[in-house]
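Hello, quick one for you while I still have it in my head. A protein chain has come my way and I'm curious about its shape. I'm sending you its amino acid sequence along with the backbone structure tokens. I'd be grateful if you could look everything over and explain what you see. Here's the protein in full, and shout if anything looks odd to you:
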Amino acid sequence: MNRRIGFTVLLGAVPVMMMAAPNAAAAVTGLSVEQPTEGLRTGCAYTVTVNVDAPVSEAGEVSIGISGGSVPGNGKRLGVAVYHPENSTATFDWTPEYTGRQNLVAQQFKPGQYTSAQYVTVDVVGRGVNTGSSCLPLP
């Protein structure tokens, strides 16, 4: 489904599989979250990777937020991903604050211009402690 939509409205809306502006010159073409075998846990950092087809210098920064799902924080902007021109990706280290199903949203935009976004639904299965090299699950 194509839509012209701003980040604030996007985060408050029920997400669709892909939201992109018609005739947009740039697009978020993929979004993934590191998925360890023990599952995602609060207190531990995971890499969110966003594929884009235009550099931030042309299409704007890549922002990460939470939209929908059953957890608090719906509509929260988490931050800006770091762009890597060598492979047309942007990465963001995300530490979940809440357990439960939630949607991570990536959006590339410049203020006043059309935007492109995608979301991925993730389940944060429990609490954990970041040991530096891994995540220790807590009961």
Q: What stands out?
A: The first strand starts at residue 18 and ends at 20. The radius of gyration is 15 Å. DSSP finds two helices and eleven strands in the chain. The helical segments are 7-12, 56-59.
